[in-house]
Amino acid sequence: MDRALFPILYAQDLKRVISFYRDLLGMQESFRYPAEGEVVFMTLQWGRSEIGLGTYAPTPGLEGRPLQVPQGGRGFELCVYVEDVDALISRLRGEGVKVLVEPMDQPWGERLAYVADPEGNTVMLTARLRAEGS
């Protein structure tokens, strides 16, 4: 049995969200629908992981329920492992991305920072700290 998690993030401004994850964070496009014309769904790959990005549609989904834009709070957080948190934060800040928490080391051996994507979703950027001498 092939087991995997595949999160899908819905966006009001799909073009900006795609640009953030694909162009700024460097994820690779692996699927788009429709193949031609204005995209309403895209899959991006990050290593062995994938995330789906879709647009809020005014019609119900296949399960018969409409998508609703969250009215506040934090209902989603994406953790993205990167090579260099500090360098990426510097580049994102230069592109106007809102930095929520500056890079900081954690006692469990990771360095992390938080940014907001174009829809205000929380994205944790993290890297494993190198052990001294390695």
What's the oligomerization state? single chain
Q: How do the strands of the widest beta sheet line up side by side?
A: 1-4-3-2
Spatial extent as radius of gyration: 16 Å
According to DSSP, the number of beta strands is 8
Element-level helix/strand string = EHEEEEHEEE
- Major sheet details: 4 strands, mixed
Helix content: 10-25%
SSE blueprint and pairings:
Elements: E1 8-11, H1 14-24, E2 28-33, E3 41-46, E4 49-55, E5 77-81, H2 85-94, E6 99-105, E7 110-116, E8 122-128
Parallel strand pairs: 1-4, 5-8
Antiparallel strand pairs: 2-3, 3-4, 6-7, 7-8
Q: How would you summarize what this structure contains?
A:
Helices cover 16% and strands 37% of the residues. With 134 residues, the protein is of the alpha/beta class.
Describe this structure in words.
With 134 residues, the protein is an alpha/beta fold. It folds into two domains: 1-57, 2,3-Dihydroxybiphenyl 1,2-Dioxygenase, domain 1 (Roll); 76-134, 2,3-Dihydroxybiphenyl 1,2-Dioxygenase, domain 1, CATH 3.10.180. Helices cover 16% and strands 37% of the residues. It has two helices and eight strands; from the N terminus they run βαββββαβββ. The chain has helices at residues 14-24, 85-94; strands at residues 8-11, 28-33, 41-46, 49-55, 77-81, 99-105, 110-116, 122-128. Strand 2 (28-33) and strand 3 (41-46) form a beta hairpin. It is globular. The termini are far apart. 16% of the residues are buried.
